[in-house]
Design the sequence.
């Protein structure tokens, strides 16, 4: 089915470990985004990508790395996880037309112990 | 820079009553869009309604309407005839249509709505 999927949906890891959250969309949307959701902050943009091989920082990029070698995939890597990165992570995408809403994945809940 | 402010962290509303969720914004973009999303306890983000900055009329989608007051920079969501299933977190969001802001949605902190029988 068409859509945007994230994996894993739930992840528990330890401080200092590397973690990669995967995001895959089937619409061939140009733009893809990673947000984190924390209580009291709403959703904050971590990184975004306007197309394959084009990425840029959002509001809270420190400690995260992204890549986009293919249009449909936009993985987010925490190179050395910290407790402050415990959060719910949402991937989203939007087409070039741009006026429509952002389409969100189901979210990935990450706990760093 | 863009900023979205939702001043109501939480509110209770009785079933069948209308409720207004406040949202104010700040932007220097000449053209922008305003969105409302609903997040139930299951966690998914559900798009509710969109208002473009140049739209002449306020947006409506079923029981949802957006009270857009451009001069006051406010975009309040009105839910008419509340239902128990409306209990959720509601987020106001905005995006600009400049090269720098294209596609990037800026969110408010959210308002938790609890609908009581």
Sequence:
């Amino acid at each position: 089915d068409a859509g945007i999927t994230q994996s894993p949906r739930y992840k528990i890891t330890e401080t200092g470990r590397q973690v990669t959250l995967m995001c895959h969309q089937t619409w061939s949307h140009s733009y893809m985004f990673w947000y984190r959701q924390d209580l009291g902050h709403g959703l904050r943009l971590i990184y975004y990508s306007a197309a394959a091989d084009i990425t840029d920082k959002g509001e809270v990029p420190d400690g995260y790395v992204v890549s986009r070698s293919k249009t449909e995939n936009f993985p987010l890597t925490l190179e050395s996880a910290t407790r402050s990165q415990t959060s719910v992570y949402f991937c989203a995408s939007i087409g070039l037309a741009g006026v429509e809403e952002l389409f969100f994945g189901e979210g990935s809940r990450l706990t760093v112990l | 820079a863009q900023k979205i402010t939702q001043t109501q962290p939480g509110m209770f509303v009785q079933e069948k009553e209308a409720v207004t969720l406040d949202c104010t914004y700040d932007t220097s973009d000449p053209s922008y869009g305003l969105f409302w999303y609903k997040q139930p306890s299951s966690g998914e983000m559900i798009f509710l309604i969109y208002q473009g900055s140049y739209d002449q009329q306020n947006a409506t989608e079923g029981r949802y309407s957006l009270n857009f007051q451009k001069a006051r920079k406010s975009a309040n969501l009105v839910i008419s005839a509340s239902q128990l299933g409306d209990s959720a977190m509601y987020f106001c969001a905005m995006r600009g249509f400049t090269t720098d802001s294209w596609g990037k949605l800026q969110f408010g902190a959210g308002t938790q709505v609890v609908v009581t029988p």
About this structure: Chain A has a mean pLDDT of 91. The radius of gyration of chain A is 13 Å.
